[in-house]
Amino acid sequence: MKSTGIVRKIDELGRVVIPKELRATMNFATKDYMEIYTEEDKIILKKYNPGCFICGSVKDIVEYKGKTICRDCLEEIQKSVWLVDKWIYDKMQWVNLLHFLFFLR
């Protein structure tokens, strides 16, 4: 966890103001909902997003590396990664073939 060096007072109603610069950095907008977590002696605020962070769907959601994502988007990403891996593998096969042919001369 990184310290910002910012110290704020809790007001009479229990509110704490999050500085504008920090809200901009963290991409918090006015009226955004926040989830509140506790961990030992810490309070953790996280922008509430019940749906997929890519398409916004709330159907068939899983959490992956701290992000909510629907299974459809996750499968699309996995397919894309597989296609890139295949493309790289195919290119490497051509490079290996050219090297082999070059050294045969």
Mind explaining what this structure looks like?
This protein has helices at 20-25, 71-104, and strands spanning 34-39, 42-47, 61-64, 67-70. By secondary structure, it is α+β, with helices and mostly antiparallel strands. The protein has two domains: 1-48, Pemi-like Protein 1, Chain: D; 50-105. A two-stranded antiparallel sheet has the order 1-2. It has a two-stranded antiparallel ribbon with strand order 3-4. A hairpin with a 2-residue loop joins β3 and β4. The longest helix has 34 residues, at 71-104.
Reconstruct the topology from this structure.
Layout: H1 20-25, E1 34-39, E2 42-47, E3 61-64, E4 67-70, H2 71-104
Antiparallel strand pairs: 1-2, 3-4
Q: Helical segment tally?
A: 2
The overall number of domains is: 2
Structural class: alpha+beta
- Unreliable stretches (pLDDT < 50, length at least 5) are none
Helicity range of the residues?
25-40%
Oligomer: single chain
The largest sheet, given as strand count, sense and whether it forms a barrel, is: 2 strands, antiparallel
N- and C-termini, Cα separation? 59 Å
The largest sheet has its strands arranged as 1-2
Beta-sheet strand percentage?
A: 15-25%
**Rg, please?**
24 Å
Give the rounded overall mean pLDDT. 86
Q: What general form does the structure show? A: elongated
**H and E string:** HEEEEH
Total count of strands: 4
Task: Supply database-style keywords.
Pemi-like Protein 1, Chain: D, 2 domains, two-stranded antiparallel ribbon, 38% helix
Please sum up the structure shown.
The protein is an alpha+beta fold and 105 residues long. It is built from two helices and four strands. It has two domains: 1-48, Ribbon (Pemi-like Protein 1, Chain: D); 50-105.
